[in-house]
Amino acid sequence: MNRDPAPQHPLVQRMIDARRVTDALFAVVKPEYLYERPIRERHRIVFYIGHLEAFDRNLFDERLCPLPAFAPELDKLFAFGIDPVDGGFPTDQPSDWPSLDSVRDYASKAREQIDSRLAAFEFGRGGMATGSPEQLLHVAIEHRLMHAETLAYMLHQLPLHMKSAPRGATPVEHASRNVGSTPMMRVPAGEAVLGMKKEDGRFGWDNEFGEQRVQVDAFEIDRYMVTNAQFREFIDAGGYRERAYWTDKDWAWKEAEGIAHPVTWSRRDDGTWLLRTMFDDIALPPDWPAYVSHAEASAYARWAGKALPTEAQWQRAAQGVPHAPSGNYDFRSWNPQAVDASPDNVSAFGVEGLYGNGWEWTSSQFEALPGFEAFPFYLGYSANFFDGQHYVLKGGSARTAQCMLRPTFRNWFQAHYQHVYAGFRCVRS
């Protein structure tokens, strides 16, 4: 790509840093495989090389500064990264896309155009006002960092021979910590605060605004996320074969897709379970969090005689976690770690590992907070998913940027999407 501009504002430097993260991620894929589609619901990898730059160009044009179109057909082609819902899979072929040289040339020119404008831009005191330069830059940065995580989900599904491990991504060496059974921590009745007020002056996405105070009854919650060893007990007990643990919709999905275990698990003829990491197949680490879909997590919770927490329960249980806890996040690792590996990442109620190491499913559908207003420059970011098919996740994974570990951040995915770096913990009233 082009030479980085001299930063004139901290947010400009953050945007440059975010570019380095996504550039390094694309470099993991051997060039001849950039037209692969490792997850059928998603675009081909090459799309995202153009999309990240097109998004910035389309967002900044006439809002931050004029950016005359130099390839309007590519601005349009790469504009939208929203994936289909429930079975509407893309049918395009590699030949339908521009050449890799053309896509990279477009991306390079888009960056060069943006950087030349930012080099001369004079930032004022707009704060986080709607449409202010500061807000637009935050949106561009976090949009890119979100893709840095979801692209990792895609690349995880690529066959190992299609990838090259970057320097520092050494083979996984795992010594089991033998977490054993997970104790439950009591959380007394009290208030949970969802979202934040616009007048707080902090950046957030549209679905984070509209502070809502919820009174939560006392409950118990797992001290740690559910581990691979615990989820294996569910499998060994026939959890994927027992109809009673699954909703009608989840059972129909499981049967139609032939789901019998988490997507990254496989089993040898001798019964040994393996886990597919980004760059290797390893013996299943028993004390890592089990990454599963919402449907699988819900079935496990019913088998265990418990439930998934609501968003308010999770938020209540997370009170008191240090502002910058230790943990496995911000691209520090390609893999999870033991669920008890960050003892100072703990809430006021003794609940550990709530931020990083794996998103955590809740039972709450993704809905607007009171007074929701869509960003006028990104109308569909949240509103397109208030559809009763997406569930809120909280916390963050090893591939989640630190800026998105703020307590108000709300992630969401469909119940049957298995590829998220997401685990769960259970609650009991």
From TrEMBL:
<keyword id="KW-0560">Oxidoreductase</keyword>
<dbReference type="InterPro" id="IPR051128">
    <property type="entry name" value="EgtD_Methyltrsf_superfamily"/>
</dbReference>
<dbReference type="InterPro" id="IPR042095">
    <property type="entry name" value="SUMF_sf"/>
</dbReference>
<dbReference type="InterPro" id="IPR016187">
    <property type="entry name" value="CTDL_fold"/>
</dbReference>
<dbReference type="InterPro" id="IPR034660">
    <property type="entry name" value="DinB/YfiT-like"/>
</dbReference>
<dbReference type="Pfam" id="PF03781">
    <property type="entry name" value="FGE-sulfatase"/>
</dbReference>
<dbReference type="InterPro" id="IPR005532">
    <property type="entry name" value="SUMF_dom"/>
</dbReference>
<comment type="pathway">
    <text>Amino-acid biosynthesis; ergothioneine biosynthesis.</text>
</comment>
<dbReference type="Pfam" id="PF12867">
    <property type="entry name" value="DinB_2"/>
</dbReference>
<protein>
    <submittedName>
        <fullName>Ergothioneine biosynthesis protein EgtB</fullName>
    </submittedName>
</protein>
<feature type="domain" description="DinB-like">
    <location>
        <begin position="17"/>
        <end position="150"/>
    </location>
</feature>
<feature type="domain" description="Sulfatase-modifying factor enzyme-like">
    <location>
        <begin position="184"/>
        <end position="428"/>
    </location>
</feature>
<keyword id="KW-0408">Iron</keyword>
<dbReference type="InterPro" id="IPR024775">
    <property type="entry name" value="DinB-like"/>
</dbReference>
